Amino acid sequence: MSNLKDIAPSPAPSIPAFDLQKQRWALSAFAEAAAALARAESTNLLIQEVCSAIAAQGPYVLAWVGKAEDDENKTVRFLGAAGEAIAYTNEIQVSWSDQQASGLGPAGVVIRTGQSCIIEDTQTDDNFLAWRKLSEKFGIRSALGAPIPDGGDHPFGVLLVYSKIPSAFAPTDVILFESLAKEIGFGLRAIERQHQLDDQIHEKELVQERLATSLRATIEAMSRTMEWRDPYTAGHQKRVAEISMAIARQLHWSEERVQALYMAAMVHDIGKMSVPSEILTKPSRLTSIEMQLVQGHVDSGYQILKDIPFPWPIADMVRQHHERLDGSGYPQGLKGDEISIEGRILAVADTIEAMSSHRPYRPGLGLDAAMKEIRAEAGSKLDASVVDAAFALEGEQVLQKILEGK
Question: Which terminus of the chain is less hemmed in, N or C, by CB atoms within 10 Å?
């Protein structure tokens, strides 16, 4: 019979720190811009605040929104811009005509094709030749264009983001900025309808709902990125999220609080990006030093998430999912009410899933063993009310269905 070491997969490569930093820049820009979209009450304010939110992040030196005009020259008209390189927009002409040099750049390509476009390096990409000298003058080295849809044959316009470093946009960043461009389109149309219809509140709620959906999709994408590195825990964060939501609903939480907990659960192990993959997939028990590295994922996750302006304290929830009521947990050794109720739910859900499922160094112990463990620790290490809620779910076979993926 083959042992686990014989069948263990080769360790996946670690995600470079720079790629992780790029993801943080893009996610921060998305979150800030989403908040601007939710509060904007006019077209000009919406565009200006979104551009300002993007340009305030990391290496982004300029963001602008342009409208595709149907005039003879197929002009792209600037609607708003922000960033330290904003003067660049005063010195360039942009069109979406494929017959003019001014239409061969990212804006023209995006509007003609309806697809996003990346310029990895403005100093070497031939499609950016018309603007190469100006981009050098303003410190622009890479660019990303995303279409703003309006339901017609061509996009309404384009969102352009410029960076002062080359190759600044990863594939996940494209997804983020495409989502944001779509929300700009939704926002612009919603504002227009607000001047024509009486149901202004309803329209704004629709925009906010779409933003929440986009944020949730982004969180899920981040979670999948983590699972690619650790095949043994593929689906772990998703199952912990589903168990956490079920417990919260059993405790009669509002749906908004349930969704916030879901977001935290979906990225509660994101800090494992900082742990060498050979440790994550090691088919034997870890040494004390290796265990310390794994335990460090909690603080690493907090550092990744703490500066992102989520509507909820996601970073704190993630940081507390290994804390215990008696102070025996980590990383801060919090006790009792020092641990948020969200952190207590994550602790119970994480214990149930981890014990029930297979790990590189042991087979799954099953749901019964997991439930015995949390009952034994109820009131001492784990919150008794949360454990009671979990047992109520077990009685309804909810937990077993989640673990089986039903």
Answer: N
Cβ atoms within 10 Å, residue 402: 23
The whole-angstrom separation of Cα 135 and Cα 129 is 10
Query: Contact, 60 vs 21, CB < 8 A?
Result: no
Express each pLDDT in 202-217 by its tens digit.
666 666 667 667 677 7
34 lies in the same domain as 110: yes
Domain that holds residue 315: 232-403
Let me know whether 72 and 185 are in one domain: yes
Does 260 share its domain with 335? yes
d(CA 135, CA 112): 23
Question: How confident is the model over 8-62, as pLDDT tens digits?
Answer: 444 444 445 556 777 777 788 778 777 777 776 778 888 888 899 899 887 999 9
373, part of any domain:
yes
* CB neighbourhood size of 109 (10 A): 21
Look up tokens 């749906």; give the residue.
Answer: 255
Q: Which pair of structure tokens corresponds to residue 41?
A: 């009450």
Burial of 225 by CB count in 10 Å (0-12 exposed, 13-18 middle, 19+ buried)? middle
How far apart are the C-alpha atoms of 301 and 275, rounded to whole Å?
11
Q: Model pTM?
A: 0.54
Q: Where are the alpha helices (DSSP H) in 80-199?
A: 106-113, 132-137, 171-194
Q: Looking at residue 330, which CATH number applies to its domain?
A: 1.10.3210.10
Q: Quick check: 266 and 223 in contact, CB under 8 A?
A: yes
Query: How many domains, the chain?
Result: 2
Name which of 242, 265, 225 is nearest 346 in CA terms. Answer: 265
Task: Write the DSSP assignment of 192-227 as a string of letters.
Answer: HHHTT-S-HHHHHHHHHHHHHHHHHHHHHHHHHHHH
Query: 406 burial class (0-12, 13-18, 19+ CB within 10 angstroms)?
Result: exposed
